[in-house]
């Protein structure tokens, strides 16, 4: 199905985007390679929990209620107020400063019930262009919240294989989150909209929030039993790229084909952190814990913190068994990095959090967007904290037993840059019956066979998994041997096309994950144990998909069923 092609999209973003980039800015602009550079950078602080991000208040013990509604927020002093969609816990979103404005904190092992009531517009506004070929009910706003990384029954998963039409105006989605995560007692999850054919639009509009699981070790306080920073020194950072129209509304480009609004990837020319445009963060010269989420629709980030030493201590699956020193953080959409950053030798300095092109073999058509936020290191410490990086942590490296079965999942792109452009898994559309049917209690290897030119962040609902490794292979030869009009079907062993040994998982993939980068020219092998929460009976149906939201919407998503 056609959209602006990758080549044409990049030119379109750099040309038309530049003309739209806020000509009325009054402060001196900061030079930037991106069109959004007309906005002055680093004018406002990063919103933080309790100071710009609302920490949700329960309506009863371990029970929450949110209205999904449209509000207005000024995301930069040189932008008019921007309409955004938000989760409102009844506090009126008091103090919310940006477009990512809510966090829910839960306790590991203690179930949580959440009610989401649709109070948004009945149909999509003009600034959110719907492709009616992808949606179940035309331009109606249908919402459905998914707890990303949650270990839940299928009915509470918020997935379109169970509830394809989502929830309409005035309807309430009630979910029960077990918080029993089998591999991760404490973890950084998040919840976001998962509407069929409109996930990209609903998330762009603002329907995303943090979900933090605590336990008796990872308490979030300081001091805590594991010797890492907490309290004000534990900071969530959600990075997103966006475009804006001159009237302050979010800009989402459309294709130039009749009735084909869908575009292949959305790349913004402005960076937001915790919902604020190019903000700054004040820190003290001491150790901090930064919990970073790539909340972009399609952009793969390669983040650097200049001279600040960094140790990664966890990812999507919670804490690891030990810290690992890193220099850059390569995060695809939905990936998280839990890191310790040492500012002790940087007192009085100012640094820029940068974003550069990801290293090969990660491949992305994203145009450059090199600056993310500013960090200002003070000269005094108001509260001394940990003074050493812990040698060990209460998590563990991902180690699962040998698999009971291996499945081969193909990643296909069909008729790109035409009005029939779409992507798929296993040569099948989303609505086709599930072909992956793991049994409860079994361990399976899934091998993602990437036959496209881009990296795809593959996310599996229900489970966390071990990244086993990546094996180079002859993608063109495999495709020539088995390809058809919709690509290569799934289930075909690519072993005879392998061109080299398996490369081990990257150090940043040490622990359990829920999203993995499937790079072009490689077979990416993950290993998961398929379990269900206590009291949940098989069969249960979930989905797995590319977390480039444009790809997920058209049509790189498939159901899988956990069977008895």
Which short descriptors sum up this protein?
single chain; 564 residues; 7-stranded mixed beta sheet; 4 helices
Outline the fold blueprint:
Elements: H1 6-20, E1 48-49, E2 52-55, E3 63-73, E4 82-88, E5 102-107, E6 112-118, E7 145-148, E8 172-177, E9 187-193, H2 199-205, E10 208-214, E11 234-242, E12 270-273, E13 276-277, E14 280-283, E15 287-294, E16 301-304, E17 310-315, E18 318-326, E19 329-331, E20 336-342, E21 350-355, E22 371-377, E23 405-414, E24 422-425, E25 443-450, E26 456-460, E27 465-472, H3 475-482, E28 503-504, E29 515-518, E30 522-529, E31 540-546, H4 549-553, E32 557-562
Parallel strand pairs: 1-2, 2-5, 3-6, 5-10, 11-15, 14-22, 23-25
Antiparallel strand pairs: 3-4, 6-8, 7-9, 9-10, 11-12, 12-13, 15-20, 16-19, 16-21, 17-18, 17-20, 21-22, 23-24, 25-30, 26-29, 26-31, 27-28, 27-30, 31-32
User: Helical residue percent?
Assistant: under 10%
- β-strand amount: 25-35%
Mean pLDDT: 92
**How are the strands of the biggest sheet laid out side by side?**
13-12-11-15-20-17-18
């Amino acid at each position: 199905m056609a959209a602006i092609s990758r080549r044409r999209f990049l030119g379109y973003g750099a040309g038309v985007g530049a003309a739209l980039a806020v000509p009325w800015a009054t402060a001196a602009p900061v030079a930037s390679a991106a069109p959004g550079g007309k906005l002055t950078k680093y004018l406002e602080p990063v919103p933080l929990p309790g100071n710009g991000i609302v920490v949700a208040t329960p309506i009863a013990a371990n029970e929450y209620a949110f209205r999904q509604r449209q509000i207005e927020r000024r995301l930069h002093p040189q932008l008019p107020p921007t309409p955004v969609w938000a989760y409102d816990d009844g506090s009126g979103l008091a103090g919310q400063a940006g477009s990512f404005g809510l966090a829910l904190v839960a306790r590991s092992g203690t179930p949580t019930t959440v009610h989401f009531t649709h109070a948004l517009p009945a149909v999509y506004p003009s600034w959110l262009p719907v492709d009616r070929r992808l949606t179940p009910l035309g331009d109606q706003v249908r919402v459905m919240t998914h707890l990303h990384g949650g270990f839940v029954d299928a009915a509470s998963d918020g997935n379109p294989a169970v509830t394809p039409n989502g929830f309409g105006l005035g309807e309430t989605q009630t979910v029960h989150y077990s918080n029993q995560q089998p591999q991760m007692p404490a973890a950084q999850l998040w919840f976001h909209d998962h509407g069929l054919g409109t996930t990209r639009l609903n998330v762009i509009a603002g329907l995303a929030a943090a979900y933090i699981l605590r336990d008796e070790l990872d308490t979030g306080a300081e001091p805590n039993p594991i010797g890492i920073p907490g309290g004000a020194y534990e900071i969530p950072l959600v990075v997103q790229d966006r475009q804006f129209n001159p009237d302050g509304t979010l800009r989402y480009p459309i294709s130039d084909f009749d009735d084909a609004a869908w575009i292949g990837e959305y790349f913004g020319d402005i960076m937001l952190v915790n919902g604020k445009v190019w903000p700054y963060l004040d820190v003290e010269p001491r150790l901090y814990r930064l919990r970073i989420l790539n909340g972009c629709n399609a952009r793969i980030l390669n983040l650097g913190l200049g001279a600040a030493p960094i140790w990664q201590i966890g990812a999507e699956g919670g804490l690891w068994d030990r810290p690992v020193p890193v220099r850059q953080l390569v995060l695809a959409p939905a990936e998280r990095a839990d890191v310790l950053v040492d500012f002790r030798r940087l007192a009085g300095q100012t640094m820029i959090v940068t974003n550069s092109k990801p290293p090969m073999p990660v491949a992305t058509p994203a145009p450059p967007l090199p600056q993310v936020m500013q960090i200002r290191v003070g000269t005094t410490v108001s509260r001394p904290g940990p003074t050493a990086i812990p040698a060990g942590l209460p998590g563990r490296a991902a180690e699962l037993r040998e698999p009971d079965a291996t499945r081969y999942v193909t990643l296909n792109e069909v008729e790109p840059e035409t009005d029939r452009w779409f992507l798929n898994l296993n040569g099948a559309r989303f609505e086709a019956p599930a072909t992956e049917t793991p049994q409860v209690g079994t361990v399976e290897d899934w091998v993602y066979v990437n036959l496209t030119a881009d990296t795809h962040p593959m996310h599996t609902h229900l489970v966390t998994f071990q990244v086993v490794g990546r094996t180079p292979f002859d993608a063109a030869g495999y495709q020539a041997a088995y390809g058809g009009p919709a690509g290569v079907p799934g289930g075909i062993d690519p072993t005879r096309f392998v061109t080299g040994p398996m490369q081990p998982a990257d150090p940043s993939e040490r622990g359990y994950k829920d999203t993995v980068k499937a790079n072009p020219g490689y077979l990416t092998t993950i290993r998961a144990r398929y379990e269900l929460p206590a009291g949940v009976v098989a069969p249960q149906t979930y989905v797995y998909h590319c977390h480039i939201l444009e790809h997920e919407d058209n049509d790189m998503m498939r159901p899988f069923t956990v069977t008895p």
